[in-house]
Design a protein that fits this description.
single chain; about 300 residues; mainly alpha; two-stranded antiparallel ribbon; about 75% helix; flat
Length: about 300
């Protein structure tokens, strides 16, 4: 039986596609499915204090949903996680784009500005957090007293201002990677397009909105998608600020899971429920992430 040219081309396309996706699929199977396979099985088990396991079906998932929807503590955790995500999306992301554009245009002290914003990526997080807490509690009140002749209470030690302080640090600490990626993407924008727009009298903000952002949108959309995928894993550096015993008023889902694992490293009784939390969060965030990716690709700005 002789294959037609059309059939041959189709088979070659299938072979090419198979070769292209083979390595990513292999990596996914090895580093996600196999690595997490035991964790997924744990969600359907129960351990006693002697380390013996029994199959309990969906009991752990029932406990997870009961906690998520009935316990006040988890409502607070959900609120904190949502605040961290919304602030990162609607405050951190626009500011990172604006700062990157400022650096891209090589405005006054742009190099110094870039270094300051990149400091969190090159200095130990614990050193940076400790310095930040000392500045809020001792440096800022001293500056207020000496410069503005005003009395200011220690900021971080103020319980009501603590979450906002941590949130501010989280946003600032996220600027470094974003600015590095955005400014690199902006450097690849065709200069002739910008020069032609400048000849037509375009302003900075119009240039940013109509030229730079559309041509860098693939990079921007990547950070948006990663932000959605990380909704349940963002710990806001809480362990660095407060250690293993953070008040429930400040916790996020990411910190809750991290704390649960740290405190129960040698206690298998707690593992199944924590695993069920991870499975539930994955089932929630996975379709949302793919949905956001689809919407950004369909309705996002076009280079054309």
């Amino acid at each position: 039986m002789t294959l037609t040219n059309r059939t041959k081309r189709k088979l070659l396309k299938i072979l090419f596609y198979t070769c292209v996706i083979a390595l990513p699929m292999l990596q996914f199977v090895i580093f996600y499915v196999l690595v997490n396979f035991n964790s997924i099985l744990l969600a359907f088990k129960e351990y006693d204090f002697y380390g013996n396991s029994t199959y309990v079906g969906f009991d752990n998932f029932a406990n997870v949903f009961e906690k998520l929807f009935k316990m006040e503590a988890f409502k607070t955790i959900a609120k904190n996680s949502a605040i961290a995500y919304v602030c990162g999306l609607f405050v951190g992301l626009p500011l990172a784009i604006i700062f990157s554009y400022y650096i891209f245009k090589k405005c006054l002290l742009s190099g110094t500005f870039r270094t300051i914003l990149f400091i969190p990526q090159i200095v130990s997080s614990l050193v940076l957090i400790t310095s930040y807490k000392i500045f809020l509690d001792y440096g800022l009140p001293t500056v207020a007293e000496k410069v503005f002749f005003a009395e200011l209470e220690p900021v971080y030690s103020n319980y009501d201002a603590r979450f906002g302080s941590i949130l501010f640090f989280t946003i600032w600490a996220g600027f470094g990677t974003q600015i590095l990626m955005y400014s690199s993407a902006m450097a690849n924008v065709n200069e002739s397009i910008i020069e032609a727009a400048e000849i037509d009298g375009i302003g900075y903000f119009q240039e940013l909105w109509y030229i730079v952002i559309p041509m860098c949108f693939s990079t921007i959309s990547t950070f948006i998608i990663v932000g959605v995928a990380g909704f349940f894993t963002n710990s806001m550096s809480l362990f660095g600020f407060e250690g293993a015993h953070v008040d429930m008023e400040f916790q996020t889902f990411g910190y809750y899971l991290y704390q649960g694992i740290q405190q129960n490293t040698s206690n298998p009784v707690a593992w199944p429920e924590l695993s069920a939390f991870g499975v539930v969060f994955t089932l929630i965030v996975a379709p949302v992430t793919f949905g956001v990716k689809y919407l950004l690709g369909k309705f996002g700005p076009s280079v054309d």
